[in-house]
Amino acid sequence: MGPAPNLTVASKAYLKIYFHAAKHLHQTINGVLLGNQTGGKIVVEDAIPLLHHWTSLSPMMEIGLDLAEQYAAEANLKIVGYYQGRAAVGDVGLGPVGEKITQRIKEKFADAFALTLDGEDFGTEKAALVVWTYTENQWRRIGSSGASPPFTSGSSIQLDSPDLPQKALSYVRDKSLHLQFGDFDDHLEDVKIDWIHNRECIPVE
Predict the structure, then answer these.
(1) Could you give the C-alpha distances from 126 to 11, 164, 169, 192, in angstroms and in order?
(2) What distance in Å separates the CA atoms of residue 133 and residue 2, rounded to the nearest whole number?
(3) How far is CA 113 from CA 3, 103, 104, 105, 170, in A?
(4) The pTM is what?
(5) pLDDT (tens digit, 9 = 90+) per residue, 63-84?
(6) Do the bridges between strand 157-159 and strand 78-85 make them parallel or antiparallel, or are there none, so unpaired?
(7) Locate the MPN domain: which residues (predicted)?
(8) Partner of 3 at 20 to 30 A CA spacing, among 72, 130, 135, 201?
(9) What separation in angstroms does the CA of 159 have from each of 27, 101, 113, 129, 173?
(10) Is it true that domain 9-142+156-189 has CATH number 3.40.140.10?
């Protein structure tokens, strides 16, 4: 197995993933991760939420991916990865659809990776994210053995602020910001919903 990537998830990206999952706790959600790579270090600066009506590799998924890619280019960012939360709390697997989408991203960004939500840790002080990279011709979970688990001391995979999970929880519990969050599915039902930026509910820019 190859080494863990040098990866930092910025506040805006983490909050978007968190709010997306909090709004659709019992549904599968997914989106893409935007950022840049400098000197081998990947910084995930933003996340674009796609779907919560899980319809596999649907035409809507393809359109959403294309629009996210257009936005990334305009923002001088790259699609560097994929994120997913599953309906079942204990399911942190990437699954066939997640693997196909991340593989597609990898065709344009060689060090593409995936984050899956750990529902059992969601709402705690932990990041509640599992990291997947492509090694030995398959997608593998990072930190299942050996090196420090992602988002813990000593790991090359970190949030840009260790208190982000607590902040995200307070935004959900005390301010209900996740209820204002919208993904591409929501935008298809109401075109006024700002699914790309979610400016109304993301307190960092």
Answers:
(1) 14, 9, 11, 34
(2) 9
(3) 13, 9, 11, 9, 28
(4) 0.94
(5) 999 999 999 999 999 999 999 9
(6) unpaired
(7) 7-138
(8) 72
(9) 25, 23, 15, 10, 21
(10) yes
3-state secondary structure the chain: CCCCCEEEECHHHHHHHHHHHHHCCCCCEEEEEEEEEECCEEEEEEEEEEECCCCCCCHHHHHHHHHHHHHHHHCCCEEEEEEEECCCCCCCCCHHHHHHHHHHHHCCCCCCEEEEECCCCCCCCCCCEEEEEEECCEEEECCCCCCCCCCCCCCCEEECCCCHHHHHHHHHHHHCHHHHCCCHHHHHHCCCCCCCCCCCCCCCC
- Give me the residue label for tokens 């400098």: 38
Q: Tokens 């280019």 belong to which residue? A: 73
> Measuring CA to CA, which residue among 59, 100, 80, 26 is closest to residue 184?
59
Tokens representing residue 14 in the block = 């983490």
Judge contact between 100 and 107, C-beta under 8 A. no
Average pLDDT over the chain reads 91
Give strand pairing partners of 83: 31, 115
**103 pLDDT above the threshold of 80:** yes
Per-residue model confidence as pLDDT tens digits over 37-50? 999 999 999 999 99
